[in-house]
């Protein structure tokens, strides 16, 4: 096993400390937290992500799901269209600065 493979395996085994903030007061969740809260496996969530049914955002090296996007996904609403609109609005707001 190469050094990179060992580092990746260690990263997968590493668990984050549980957060004490209730979900209804949070703005975002990690993929692992969404899997725990929804009962959908992590690999299942990544499959939905690749299919475009789940919108996530990268913050540094972390992938997060906004609570609103998670709720829309779980309701079966189209989050990809909403995220595209939100990204375009953000780009327009950035142009004004």
Structure notes:
The chain is globular and about 40 Å long. The protein has 97 residues and is mostly helical. The longest helix has 18 residues, at 79-96. A hairpin with a 2-residue loop joins strand 2 and strand 3 (62-66). The mean pLDDT is 81. It has a three-stranded antiparallel beta sheet. The chain has a single domain (23-96), classed as Orthogonal Bundle (Multidrug-efflux Transporter Regulator, Chain: A, Domain 2). The protein contains five helices and three strands.
Strand-helix topology:
Blueprint (H helix, E strand, L loop, with lengths): L2 H11 L14 E3 H8 L3 H9 L6 E3 L2 E5 H9 L3 H18 L1
What is the average per-residue confidence, as pLDDT, rounded to a whole number? 81
Secondary structure tally, helices: 5
| Poorly predicted runs of 5 or more residues | none
The 3D shape can be described as globular
Please provide a brief summary of the model.
The protein is mainly alpha-helical and 97 residues long. It has helices at residues 3-13, 31-38, 42-50, 67-75, 79-96; strands at residues 28-30, 57-59, 62-66. Strands 1-3-2 form a three-stranded antiparallel beta sheet.
